[in-house]
Amino acid sequence: MSLKIRQPAKAPSPGLPGLFLRLLVLAAVGVALAASPAAASPDAVRWTKVNIPAGGETGGWVLASGSDVRHLTASPDGTLYAAAPGLTYTLYRSADGGYTWTHLGKVGDDIVAIAVSPADESRIYYATVAAVFRSTDAGKTFSQLPNGPGGAGAGNVEITSLAVARADHDIVAVGTRDTDSSQFGGVYALDGADIIPAWTDTGLGSYDVYAVAFSPAYPTDRQMVAVMTDETDSFVAGRVADGGWGAAMGNARLNRDNASSPVAVVVTESAAVAFPANYDADPASGLNFLYVAVATGAGTGDVYRISGAPAPNPSPATDLNAGAAYGQGNLDITGLAVYGEYPSAVLL
Predict the structure, then answer these.
(1) DSSP letter for each residue of 161-220
(2) Which residues pair with 164 in a beta bridge?
(3) Residue 293 forms beta bridges with which residues?
(4) pLDDT tens figures, 144-177
(5) Burial of 219 (0-12, 13-18, 19+ CB in 10 A)
């Protein structure tokens, strides 16, 4: 399900006027309320469908022909960024909650991910399937980072995801996949403090990666999280500093419907990671809970709650069955956001 750009019916169109932020519900499913820390069933959450704003002339909105909003990203100060394939320029910014949009840097690339430095709003990043680009002047100009992390752009290797963290400098991470059968991508990181920056293989192993994210407290806990598949199963894994993947928090295997006979989920399209405000990367803290959304391309994805467990124990993954109340046991979820603290966080 795509998220459409809408614009005022009589307004000029220098960029992307009139993307209504609440249209995010088109790419989401609903709101999860009162998640219980002890429960391990779909009853642990309640999902409510959210109506979208009225469209057409009666609603004062018309569709901007030939375009979809993708990779909607909020910076720490609330500025919104989005990609809009199908238009002359493909990278846009809104400083007023999505009512008006302007294009950035005359970017015309096919964008697969967007990120903003959490400590410097002027440092904006975007990725194509083959490369990562950075702006240090708030989007006026962009320059390409070192070529091809993990061989991206050749041999059917593609960048799927992008994340940026800040210590004393930016740390950039990308996830990649290899579209050939039994061939895999990985997670690659670039340290902005290096004199000659280069992409470093983090040693994930034989997996295709569909989401990569940094812990909200990365400057202190140094945790990175990935959603990955070996083409048979899908997992959520964590890595702390230079340690191995799965060395601190056990990997979580994603299964459908919390069934007694697990049915594997294989991510083939996209994934998203979201952290509650009180997230703690330490699996012994009692607050090592995060949320993951996956899209399989076959309608068998969903939203999962990951309950971090100390390795080598596996971390439980609870299928939250976002569509169950509407007759859909599983469905692909392409976007995910969380507000508030676990266990009462609200999901969209």
Answers:
(1) EEEEEESSSEEEEEEEEE-STT----EEEEETTSSS---EE----S-EEEEEEE-TTHHH
(2) 172
(3) 272, 303
(4) 999 889 999 999 999 999 999 987 889 999 999 9
(5) middle
